[in-house]
Amino acid sequence: MDSRPAVISPTWWIVALVLAAVAAGIVAMSLGDRSGRRGPDLGDRFEYQIDQYQRIDPAWIRWVQTASFDAQVGSGRAVAVGPEDRIYVGGPQAVHVFDRDGTARHRVATPSPVYCLAVAGPSQAAPGRVYVGLKEHLELWNLDGTPQVVWPSLGARAVLTSIALVGNEVFVADAGTQMVHRLDQQGARLGRIGQRDEHGRGGFVVPSPFFDVAPAPGGMLYVTNPGALRVETRSADGTLRSLWGEASAEIEGFFGCCNPANLAVLPDGRIVTAEKGLLRVKVYTPDGTLDGVVAGPEQLDSPALAPGDGLADREFAAVDVATDSRGRIIVLDRATGAVRVFEEKPNKEGNHR
User: Which of the given ranges, 1-15, 244-258, 291-305, has the highest pLDDT on average?
Assistant: First the structure.
């Protein structure tokens, strides 16, 4: 006699599960937009929940717009601040330079669209040198726009999105390869940050062409990891030191598929972040605590989401950010080339936070 326990064939319940899944899929498709442009119909309640995040509690908004001007670039990708707080805006065909009050100074033509910019300060190598990032290489200019040198291409896959100057080294965020290039002052590569180990760990997740790097205290770097919805602090050799950020539609977190899109650092060490899709510019302490909001969709003239719209419809709506020596935050509307200048509101004691 066979004493082994009876084994019931699972065939019948597997078939039942498959049929149930197919039926559920058919129902879901019948409820959704078959064109695929809107995605599934989640109803008015879901649309309202998205719309409510456009409105930010005024108590959080601790900055005020004090100036604005049209950079006359049309769409632009990059803004940077140089000596005397001059504002540099990169457009499709040129870099435009303005005084701190928005008065135009000069325009320097470029052979292709400008993807990113940096200007060396007094404590950095070659003060006043302008680093212009085109799609896959950098060009270096004097302060007046006179070309100095063209550095070699960083590769056919490169999509350069940000430049950070740290001491005598240049760090370039590359959304195409999802790494940060570490270069010397001659453009030679010293290393790359974000290479994955044999287990696929240690890299950045960059689903779209938004990837930023900025100097941090002590020769360190702040690097966005947008697909992971966080900001990382790394040493010059790429070692991860700390990280912060959480996925959330609430004001303390980062919303969407991949944020923050851009960042900058204030003179007092606080970090400015800019989110794409749902446009929000915020200020955090270095440990990742939300300190205040600079501007949200209402302040940045981002149109309210219409019924049926989703964040995917504005996936590439974004702003770039920079800071100047007086602690002002410079915001570039990448779609229109409008530049907005924000200053912190004084607290009750008459001091800035």
Answer: 244-258
